C-alpha cells in the first residue's frame, strides 16, 4: 500500500444480508415475543386468579350470596336458610364454639360478630328461641340482613 494513499480508500463496503422476501420473519419474531410475554405473565395471572377464587370462597362472600338467594324463598324457609347462613359465617369467623351456642348466647354472639344490637334488641331476635318455636319465627327483613353483611363491623375478638 503506498504511503500517500488515503487509508479510507482501502475499506470495503459492508455487505448486509438481503431483506427477507416475505413478512414471515416479522411474523415469527412477533410470535416469539408474544410467547415470551405470556410466559412472563403466566405466574402473575395465576396468583391473581388464586386471589379471586379465595375471595369468592371467603365466608363473607358466601354469606352475601346466600342471603341474596334467600329472598325468593317463602318466609319460613327464608328465615331457616338465613339462620343456617349466619351460623356458618359465625363458625368460619369466630370458630365452631361460637356457632354452637343457642338462645340468648347465640344472639349475643351474632351481635358481637356484627358489632350491632340487631339480634338482641331488633328483628334479628327471630334467630333465637323463636326460630325453634312451634309457630315458626317471624320473618326477618332480608334488606336489613344484607345491609349487615355488606359492611360487617366485626370486633377484634371475632377476626
From TrEMBL:
Keywords: Membrane, Transmembrane, Transmembrane helix
Name under which the protein is recorded: DUF4381 family protein
Listed InterPro entries: DUF4381
Tagged with keyword Membrane: yes
Organism: Methylobrevis albus
Transmembrane residue ranges: 24-45
